[in-house]
């Protein structure tokens, strides 16, 4: 099946990205090796925050009932606002099998400087050691902790969003579902960047990017096998693991969904937005021509990346009520 071609301006960034992260093909027997490799890619928070107008601290908070405590990192603007700040729950990517919360802290540093936001990055449990929806439960516990501690954090309880890319986008969608279903903290929005939503991995775009791209169909199969195990492809898969499985998308926080036209997750992201609209909800959808998975972060100077980042900033300003 012929893939959508990449925007030529994005190709150098794609090649650099694949060269950085695809050294060891992601398969069931290489998950641990990939974790070790990924741990070398993201600099420590001390280095990320050096010279930036932010403060940060690590904490341990209660996990879900019967589960271990959770490590988080809180990022704040160095100069405290005179009024409560917007809050961002940052959920990292990595297919729910790789990565750490420090994948998400660069975004929180940027949002603290530009929007005055207070961010919380959550260290959720990874599959296959912890099958889904353990990841979403950890992230939701972090949201509940944020909502219960808004006064101490300096956060406006009416301006909290969940934000993530790839697996983090899927988990942000899951947190929005959990909040709705459990009558939990009210989210102002859910930012779903190139979100990982559907364990079935059978869309046209998934087949177009089978063996090519920054996160291809094989990587996705490996991750979903780890997350869902023997339940994969059945109705036993929890919608809090795979949000596309949710029976209804009514009553959710407003969603921002963006995705590249040249990546595995294109069609499931579009379908998720369509289902939100069909249920009478709010979603802003952007499908960026020629964009590979995660293009706006890895090719930030390309014209399409600048447009994507500007659109995302516009949504953030509207939802968070910041200038």
What report would you give on this structure?
By secondary structure, the chain is of the alpha/beta class. It has a single domain (8-320), classed as Alpha/Beta hydrolase fold, catalytic domain (Rossmann fold). The chain has 12 helices and 8 strands. It has an 8-stranded mixed sheet with strand order 1-2-4-3-5-6-7-8, sandwiched between helices. Strand 7, helix 10 (266-278) and strand 8 form a beta-alpha-beta unit. The longest helix has 18 residues, at 303-320. It is globular, with a radius of gyration of 18 Å. The chain starts with 10 loop residues before the first helix and ends with a helix. The model has no long low-confidence stretch (mean pLDDT 96).
